[in-house]
Structure formats: structure tokens, C-alpha cells
Amino acid sequence: MAGRARGAGAGAARGPGRAGVPGARRPELRLPPLEPYGGGGLEPDGDYDGLEFAEADLSEQDGGGARFLDCALRGCVLDGTRLRYARLLDSVLSTPRGVGTDLAEATLRDVEVLDARLGGTQAHGAVLERVVVRGGKIDYLNLRKAKLRDVVFEGCVLVEPDFGGARLERVEFVDCVLRGADLTGATLTDVDLRGATELDIAGGLDRLSGAVISTGQLLDLAPALAAQLGLRVEG
């Protein structure tokens, strides 16, 4: 394991843009009155506007290329759901759960993801802009070559997320666990890691340029950083 650091602990105050770091712009969602989703299954390239998907089982359904505008997905099951190239705009995903959800090359803009329980989500090549992921646990999130701008991970647990080759700009980790993260080949700009209660970098320590960490995190990461540089520390 390349490096591990712990922050100040859950509940630490985090002000946007603290100490000169530009803060992420968060979505300001005001959903209109929603109509209940009538079922019948998702359709590729479908158009879903102002709908509430409540406790819907969308397992193995194909909504590739579909557009979701001003929608709320609450308690939906997303096992193997195919949403490749889908666009989720001005929408809320509350307590989604599932394994193997396919969001590859999807677009999420002005979206809140709340209390997710997801595993093996494929979001490589996706574009996330003004997105908040709050609470819950996501295992093995694949964000390789994705573009994240103004994204906040808050109060959640991320186990072995893969940011390989991704571009992260104004991304904040607030009171969350980042365990076994792979940053290989990633590009970071104004990424604030100081609020991570656990910071564990499994690969790509050399890509931390453009990120901000705390003094305590730096001390914890020092052995791994020294090893990365081939630096021997004795005495």
C-alpha cells in the first residue's frame, strides 16, 4: 500500500475555499412537482422529465443514452443497470443500491447522490460537474479517464476508487474515507484532501501535485513519498 494518512476526524469544520483553495460549486436543486414513474422499463435514448422513480427495480434494464431531467430516483435498485452515455441533469439519486451499474461516459450535471450503497460502478470516461456525493459507501468505483469539476464527496466511504487518468478540478473530500485510491496518471487541480478522515493512496502518489493536504497527512504520507523518490531516511 503506497500511503495512508488520517485527518482531524469526522465533524471537522470545512469552509469552501479555505486557505485560498477555490471551493467546489455545489448544485442548487429545486425540483418541480414530480409525476410518478409509470414503470414499463427504461428505454435506450429515452427522455424522462420531471419524474419520481420510487423504490423502482431497474436491474438489468437498458437506459443507455437516456436523458433524466428534474428527476428523483429514490431507493432504486440498479444491479447491472445500463446507463452508458446517459445524461442526468438537475436530479437527485437518493439511497440507490446495486452492483455493476454502468454509467460509462455518462454526464452528471447538478446532481446529488445521497446515501448510496453501490459496488463496482463503471463510470469511466464520465463527466461530473457540480455533483455532491453525500453519505453511504461505494466500493470499486471506476472513474478512469473521467472528468470531475466542482465535485464534493462528503461523509461517504470510497473503497478502492480508480481515478486513473482522470482530470479532477475543484474536487473536495469532506469528512469522508478515501481508502486504496488509485491516482495513476490523474491530473489534479485545486483538489482539497484535507477533510478526508482517512487518506489512503494505493497508487499515483506522484500525481498529488495540484492537491492540498494537511500537515498531519503529509507526515503520515512521508514514508511512502520518500520511497517514491528513492530517498533513504536513516538516523
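(ticket continues) Second input and output from the same batch:
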Amino acid sequence: MDLIDLLILCSVLVFLLLWRRFWFHTGGGPNNLPPGPPGWPLVGNLFQVILQRRPFIFVVRDLRAKYGPIFTMQMGQRTLVIVTSSELIHEALVHRGPTFASRPPDSPIRLVFSVGKCAMNSAEYGPLWRTLRRNFVTEVTSPTRIKQCSWIRQWALENHMKRFKREALENGSVEVLNNCRLTMCSILICICLGARISEDRIKNIERILKEVALMTTLKLPDFLPVLAPLFSRQMREAKELRKKQMECLVPLIRNRRAFIEKGENPNSEMVSPVGAAYIDSLFDLKPPSRGPLGEQEFVTLCSEVINAGTDTSATIIEWALLHLVQNQEIQDKLYREIAGCVGKGLVKEEDVEKMPYLGAIVKETLRRHPPSHFLLSHAAVKDTELGGYTIPMGVNVELYTAWVTEDPDIWKDPGDFRPERFLEGDGVDVDVTGTRGVKMVPFGAGRRICPAWSLGILHVNLMIARMVHAFKWLPDPESPPDPTETFAFTVVMKNPLKAVILPRS
């Protein structure tokens, strides 16, 4: 922001301060919104939050203690209804799922990358969303397709284990997150585009898609569009980044199309049979009211799958490994379960279904370290009621699900990492989809639940089982494990986990 932009912004702030006698109040009144903190005119609570200079989740926790399980914040021109209780989240997402199944309006920068909300995550509830989701479930996460693509995971995990061995030999320790992200990204690129490409190209795609994820996080103009002209540089940067995104994925998409239509396969990079890649189903897809999709939509839809699956799965694995490194007893118990199931053989996909302790570790990791503290923003399709208050159509309904996993009324000793709770205790029969009740919802619930959640669990279970079966994981004395959190699209460790690995005999 240059000097003149700064002067304009300061002038706006001075103007707003002159109007402080017109305080904004939420709650009660003719609109019957949930209660909430009083705000400044025009900007509401926006600058009050910014001036606190601390993560938004801590602001939400304080407001929850004061205003209860549902409250309103006026963030500039956006009205946010924050929902934090298990009962109200379940009511909104499950009992009244169709009513709360839409999305609020997107910012101009997000629309650049979603091509006008033509994506499963951002599409409004309606025919376009139904078509995209139904196609994805059929072509990617159906049992038949998952089984058909098992060779992709086999290939990627062979490279994964070789890379760990090489890195341990060269450096004395391994970095968990980067290796897991690279492996997950390679799997998802192959599932989406049918291509097996070099690690350098995978890393380039991963880097660009990470930049896209960070570029589309909420920024000041999203709350105050009137200030958008002061942030024109951000829009220019977004368009440049979109160009890079197109440049790295369109060649693969065109090569896939040539492979399907003409049998062409330069460098033999197309390895999935015709019809087995996600992109194959998109070439002829014609969503209602939109018509045939083009390269812009292809890039958006494939990027959505690669980005979401890479970050969430890799982050869960890193948090799980942190606890296995810190608690050797849990790790030894898991190893005994794996070895008892497969002996010295290779862990296969069907094997992980027979490992209840592995499943308990992954569930406890999801409870203690959900990929995000909030679900993606929801919106009501019409004016409706929740918790005795009116929820206007289109406002941001923000579901703070991390509180549910920390609630001592739901979980005994919620701060402890104890996988056994899912075998005998308060976690037995917990439904991670939230259908039967909300005790943890790492993938959302109801109509907008992550459509690939079962595939993600398979990837996480399989990778952890392979890694623990092959190596004993120990703390790196030069870089001790640090559980401090930070936000980078998902909730990750501030200092990435490094570990010493010893081959199992």
C-alpha cells in the first residue's frame, strides 16, 4: 500500500471515529439476530477484532463465554452468526441440513479462482452443486473407483518410503509434513489427471496451489468492499497467480484429452486407463444452467480436490506422528497391532480395516487437532430460525467445531491424547460424520460434508501404518517436537515435526 492509499485509509478511519455516537448493536430488535458485541458504525466489530492482535479463535472463545453458544458479529458489511454448541451445530447441519446447505457470497478474489463459484466447496446449494458432487462421488470415491486406483497409492508409497530412507541417511532425521504433502499431492494428481509426473513438477503444482489457498483466505476488502480500490494490487496478484495455476495444469489436462481422443501419450505420463481419471468425467459434463465446462472450470475443480486432500491428510499424519514420537508406548502398541496383522509383509489397503487401534489413533488425532477450527462458511437458503433467533438468508453462518472437541461436558480430560477412549470410553461409537450427533465433525456434516472424507481416512490410515511398520520413530534431539499451532490453510505445527527413524528388524 503506497502513501496516498494509506492517507485515504486513515481518512476513512477518522471519519468513522467521528461517528462513534452511532454504536452498532446486534441481538434483539426487529431482526431478532443472536446477541453480540456492540460495534462501531459501518465497520461493526471488524477493527475491534483487528486491534486485539490475536487469533480470531481466541476472540470467539471469549465471546462465547459472554454471549452463549450462538452470537452475532458484524464484520464490516458481513454479518457473521457464530454457532459453537454441539446441539445447535447438529440441528443446523443434520436436522435442518437443506436449509443451511448454501454458501455466502464470495469475494472478488475468490471468484477469480472459483470461476464464479463453479466448485463443490463454494457452489451455492442447487443444481450446479448437486451435479458436481454427484459426479465426484461416482468418479472418485465410489468403492469401485477406490479399488481401481489402489495401484496409485502403491506406487506413491513406494517412493514415499524410499524418500524417507534417503533423507534419514543424508540428514540424520526426516521432516514429516513436506514428505507427506509431496506423497499426497502425487496421489491426487494421478487420481485427478491420470498422470504420473516427476517430483519437481509435483512440487511446483503443490507450491502454486498452496499459494492459491493462502491468497483466497479472508482479507480486509472481503469485509469492507468499499476499500477494495485501495487493495487493487491484491487483485492484480490474484490474477497473476491464476495465470500460473492455469499454466501448470492446463498442459496436463490437454495431454489427457489427447490421450483419450487420439491415443497420444508423450513421455508415457498418462498412466490411468481411459475413464479412470477424474478429469475424464469432466470433459463431457454439462451442469444445469452452465453448459459444457472449459479449461478454467477443469483447473478449478481439479485444484480443489488436490489442494483439499493434500493439506488435510498430510497435516493429520504429522500430528499423529507427533504423539507417537512423544509417547513411545502408544507407538509400540500400534506397531504390535500392525505386525500382528501382516507380519513382515506389506501393509495393504484391506489390512488397515482390521486395525482398531490404528483407527482409534487417527480419530483421537482428528479430535485433538481438527484440520480447521471452523467449518467452511454456511448460509441459509431462506430466512429461518436457529436457537430461538432469526438467521437471515445469505449471512455467514460460522460453525466453530473445535470447541466441541474441547468441551469437558462431552469429553473426559479433553486435553489428553488418549486413543483408548475410542475403544472403551467416551469415544466409543462416535460418528465422525455427525449424523447421529456432533461430538467431533472434522469433515463437516449433513449435505455439505466433505465428499472425500472416507478416501482421506484411507490415505491417512495406510500411510501411518506403512510408516510405523517400517520405522521406529524417535524425537530429533537437535529439533525437539513442538506442538505449538499456527494457521496455513490448515492448522499446522509452527515448527514442522522432525524425527529420527530406525528401520524395524
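Agent notes: Residues 18-30 have pLDDT under 50 and may be disordered. The chain is about 50% helix and 10% strand. Closing as not reproducible unless the customer responds.
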